[in-house]
Amino acid sequence: MHLVSTLFVENFEMRQADGPSSRIDLTGAFFSILAPSEPPFIFSPHLIALIYCEPGESGEGVFEVVFRRGLGETDEQVARNVSPFRVDPGKFTYRLVKAELEFDDYGQIFAHCRVNRDPWSVLPLTLLPRPNS
Predict the structure, then answer these.
(1) Which string of DSSP letters, residue by residue, matches 64-84?
(2) pTM, rounded to two decimals
(3) Rounded mean pLDDT of 27-36?
(4) DSSP string, 99-128
(5) What end-to-end distance do the CA atoms of the chain give, in Å?
(6) Is the dihedral of CA 81, 82, 86, 87 positive or negative?
(7) Nearest in space to 54 (alpha carbons), one of 122, 112, 3, 120
(8) Cα separation of 123 and 109, whole Å?
(9) Hey, what domains does the chain have and what are their CATH numbers?
(10) Are 110 and 123 within 8 A, CB to CB?
(11) Residue 22: which of 85, 90, 92 has the closest Cα?
């Protein structure tokens, strides 16, 4: 299994294309957000992961996301999602994770993502303060 990509997105839609083919339309990919109000608050971003299964593999996998306040595996965990999946060998699948992330202050939260027990891929999400009016 290969974790092809992870992104925070505002929206996504699946659609059919010619042949036995599908398309995923992604809109509003982002790595930072403007705070909706003064902290503390809860923000629930959509994280989408695209996963490829090589021919000859079983097609069984587990997608894990751990949201942490830092880059290290020992940094504070603020949310976690684990979801088993099945994908036909030689094909792609996607996983959608909607976490509830509590922000007590401005800064970053990092989504540590992996398939099975592979190395982590890290995706930052930065909370930006609103400009003074």
Answers:
(1) EEEEESSSSTTSPEEEEEEEE
(2) 0.91
(3) 93
(4) --EEESSSEEEEEEEEETTPPPEEEEEEEE
(5) 48
(6) positive
(7) 3
(8) 9
(9) 2-128 (2.60.40.10)
(10) yes
(11) 92
| Structural tokens at position 27 | 């809109």
pLDDT greater than 70 at residue 133: no
Distance CA 66, CA 60 (A): 20
Average pLDDT, the chain: 93
What tokens were used for 16? Answer: 């059919």
Residues recorded for the chain? 133
**Which one, of 55, 59, 58, 33, lies nearest residue 44 by Cα?**
33
Residue that has been written with the tokens 């003064």 in this structure: 38
Residue 80's pLDDT band (boundaries 50, 70, 90)?
Answer: very high
Rounded Cα distance between 103 and 37, Å, is: 11
**Both structure tokens of 91:** 């094909």
Burial classification of residue 46, based on how many CB atoms lie within 10 Å of its CB (0-12 exposed, 13-18 middle, 19 or more buried): middle
